[in-house]
UniProtKB/TrEMBL annotation:
Keywords linked to the UniProt accession: Membrane, Transmembrane, Transmembrane helix
The DUF7649 domain, residue ranges: 4-89
Protein name (database record): Cell wall-active antibiotics response protein
All residue ranges annotated as the Cell wall-active antibiotics response LiaF-like C-terminal domain in the record: 129-241
NCBIfam families assigned to the protein according to its UniProt record, in alphabetical order: LiaF_C_term (NF040535)
Amino acid sequence: MKIYWQLFLIIEALLLLVVLGQLFNNFGALFLVILAVITLLYVFKKERRNSFNQFQIVVSVIVLLLMLLINSPAFWIMLVIAIVFLGLKGFELTGSSLFGESGRKNKEIIMVETIEPENKNGRRFKRKWFGNQRIGDTVYEWDDINMTIISGDTLVDLGNTLLPKEDNVILIRKAFGRTRLLVPVGIGVMIEHSALTGNVKLDNQVIKLKNDAVKVYSDDYSQTQRRLKVVSTTFVGDLEVIRI
């Protein structure tokens, strides 16, 4: 998880440079920001602060925020990224989900009796863009999976369904987070994955990616009747196939 913090700090630092560049184009705003910063430094260096010093802190913070919010769109982006990232990390550390589901530490694998696929009907549904989620924690009819996620860990359990004797597809587009697929033994797996940084784990194969793309097959792929094709694009995160 350390790499997520490094990436977050790099993005915030780059946005801070953009903020400074935008302020330099507005002399009045730049002057007020510098004055507010100097006032804050002066007050915080004092060993004893009176009520007037507290007033100075409040006024300086208000002026600083107003000048940044009014004159720098990049500062808005910094705030949004910081709120989203720190919020997700807070839910992750507490073991809970942004949408009220249990966290990764509370998850368990539940194996139940599977059912044969039935005639398929079209349907409309929504998937989460943020937070941890688990697909397939109860018996379900298999259908190809296509999902887009901005941030969060994803667990797809194929132990509670029966894959047809054909090529089955999982398509994943994700910015940040780990993806784990629980795949029964005897199902051939092909992974085509691209990532800025992360690992791909399939059976005994572990492939580290740094701005790379890889295509890898399980040893039994050509001999099995039921096959799973996983096509994934991730900015930062791992993709792992776990046999069950």
